[in-house]
Amino acid sequence: MSISNLKKSEIFANVDGNRPASSRQLYAVARHFGKVGGNDQGESYRLQKIYSAILLKFQNEHTETPITHSDVSRFFESSEVPPKFVKMINTKPVKAKKIIKDTPKVSKPKAEKATPKVTSVKKIQADASELSEFQARFDAITKRQDATDKKLSTFEAKLDIIMAYLETDPDA
């Protein structure tokens, strides 16, 4: 008997309902929730991404009572998203960051001799925590670069010794 001739319910009839759902099943449920909750294709896609994160987080936090195979089957049969997952959606307004360029803008002069206008650039002061984090990362990269330079110079010295030996005794 071929699997392609069977319905989904018949294919998964022999699977234990208490078995924890796999991440692939959770993504499929998230896709279903996105289609149910979304009005158009773009909104469905965004909701799919949100629900997949919510389901994976729920699965990791509730290791004693994870989402099971029977829960997945029930979710697929449902035509709405369970309220416990809807409540987990956090909507925080995203603030647009102002992009500041380092070079001042100069307007193009018109046909007549007009003086170009130069706009001043405001400098932003970085937080101390961000600055210390950046400095720590920079120091780590610098240490790795120094170690790599040292290894390279050692390698070059060994290569020079080998080349000198080959030049003096080519038959060896």
Structure description:
- The protein has helices at 8-11, 23-37, 41-61, 69-77, 83-86, 128-168.
- It is built from six helices and no strands.
- The relative contact order is 0.07.
- The protein starts with 7 loop residues before the first helix and ends with a helix.
- By secondary structure, the protein is mostly helical.
- The model has no long low-confidence stretch (mean pLDDT 80).
- The longest helix has 41 residues, at 128-168.
- The radius of gyration is 31 Å and the shape is flat.
- Helix 2 runs parallel beside helix 4 (69-77).
Q: What is the element string, with H for helices and E for strands?
A: HHHHHH
Distance between the termini: 71 Å
Structural classification: mainly alpha
Q: Would you identify the regions where 5 or more consecutive residues have pLDDT less than 50?
A: none
Strand proportion: under 5%
Approximate helicity band: 40-55%
Largest sheet: none
Helix count equals 6
